């Protein structure tokens, strides 16, 4: 009857990250941290989990001698997010 919700996306912070990335396609780590109001450590752990699942790509580089981390949603991440939203909608219908 009800589809199982993706446990990777069912975390509040990971879902927030994916929701941001679905609209902007890619964002710097600092932007995501500010928008989600997460600590850098917690966000780093959650970003790593999304990366391991194949939902996002993470690029680490230097910009003006400062480290810069950029997160970008993958096609697999878009599909997983859309499936999650669709499954969640089933729970909300009477």
TrEMBL record:
Domain Winged helix DNA-binding: 13-92
Coiled-coil features, chain-numbered ranges: none
Pfam families: HTH_34 (PF13601)
Cited InterPro entries: WH-like_DNA-bd_sf, WH_DNA-bd_dom, WH_DNA-bd_sf
PANTHER family: BSL7504 PROTEIN (PTHR37318:SF1)
Protein name per UniProt: Transcriptional regulator
Organism: Sediminibacterium roseum
């Amino acid at each position: 009857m009800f589809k199982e919700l993706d446990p990777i996306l069912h975390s509040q912070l990971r879902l927030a990250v994916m929701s941001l990335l679905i609209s902007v396609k890619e964002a710097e780590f600092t932007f995501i941290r500010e928008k989600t109001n997460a600590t850098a450590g917690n966000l780093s752990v959650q970003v790593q989990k999304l990366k391991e699942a194949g939902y996002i790509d993470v690029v680490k580089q230097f910009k003006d001698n400062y480290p810069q981390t950029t997160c970008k949603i993958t096609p697999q991440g878009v599909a997983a997010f859309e499936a999650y939203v669709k499954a969640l909608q089933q729970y909300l219908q009477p």
